[in-house]
Amino acid sequence: MAILGAHMSIAGGYFKAVNAAQAAGCDCVQVFTKNNNQWRAKPITDEDVEKFRSALDEHRIKHTISHDSYLINLASPDDELWKKSIDAFVIELQRAEMLGIPHVVAHPGAFTSSCEEAGLKRIALGLDETHRQTKGCAAQCLLETTAGQGSNLGWKFEHLAEILEMTSDPDRLGVCFDTCHVFAAGYAMDTEKNYKATMRSLNKTVGVKQVQAFHLNDSLRPFGSRKDRHAAIGKGEMGLEPFRFLLNDRRFRKVPMYLETPKEDDQGRNMDVVNLKTLRGLIKT
After folding, report:
1. CA–CA distance from 106 to each of 5, 45, 95, 110 (Å)?
2. Cα-flanking dihedrals φ and ψ of residue 245, to 5°?
3. Rounded CA gap, 177 and 207, in Å?
4. What number of H helices and E strands is found in the chain?
5. What is the pLDDT along the chain (285 residues), one digit of tens a residue?
6. Domain residue spans of the chain
């Protein structure tokens, strides 16, 4: 059976995210460990850790994951921003470690005024420096597939493969596969034939065993648009078939999958509950 959950808000305390996940019927939960649009981070207290871990035990929710700040850009050609991004990412890993979160999802970065190749090298160097500063830290970085908006890297599987190849410690890295982003980047999954072709491409470049998490999102924008706009499951341009193929792929049975879809619809319904029900209905028994 698939391991399904959602991203939840930490407003009011980390444990509140776990309570919300349990109420929605989640098996797993994703959080930000700080405000994702600020550099500064409020310290995590012992009480924060204790309440968070107790809530996870109480509700039997496993496979916690965090997402790093959107301000971080390890591909930046600007030395000041690049160093600031490394410092911030080190803190992201340390915060995850404190909370007992095993993985931190990160967008690889945007090359802005440089070029694709320079950006990929910059990311690898940034990850190496991050790893140097976090020796002994169990929390791992998962590089996320992106839609490829602007100069964002990671929309080609080859980008991720190249980063993994260039880093000194690839064992401390993995991949997070975002369905909306992959669709927007131009990888088809609408038929069984296309789904298998996309997964073959992933396996040939990155390796399917590198995928440690999935983000399950439909897309508001059309196939190959290179635009990152999430929609409720089956309510966007993707439809249900890609999710059906993915949820019944035995290779990913034990890989946790997290919704990052809108939380409410026009009628005020909890869309995590609705989306989880839709996804579970696609699984062949």
Report:
1. 18, 24, 14, 12
2. -65, -45
3. 12
4. 9, 12
5. 899 999 999 999 999 999 999 999 999 999 999 999 999 999 999 999 999 999 999 999 999 999 999 999 999 999 999 999 999 999 999 999 999 999 999 999 999 999 999 999 999 999 999 999 999 999 999 999 999 999 999 999 999 999 999 999 999 999 999 999 999 999 999 999 999 999 999 999 999 999 999 999 999 999 999 999 999 999 999 999 999 999 999 999 999 999 999 999 988 999 999 999 999 999 998
6. 4-280
Q: Residues with Cβ < 8 Å from 139, sequence gap 6 or more?
A: 93, 94, 96, 97, 101, 102, 103, 104
The CATH code for residues 4-280 is 3.20.20.150
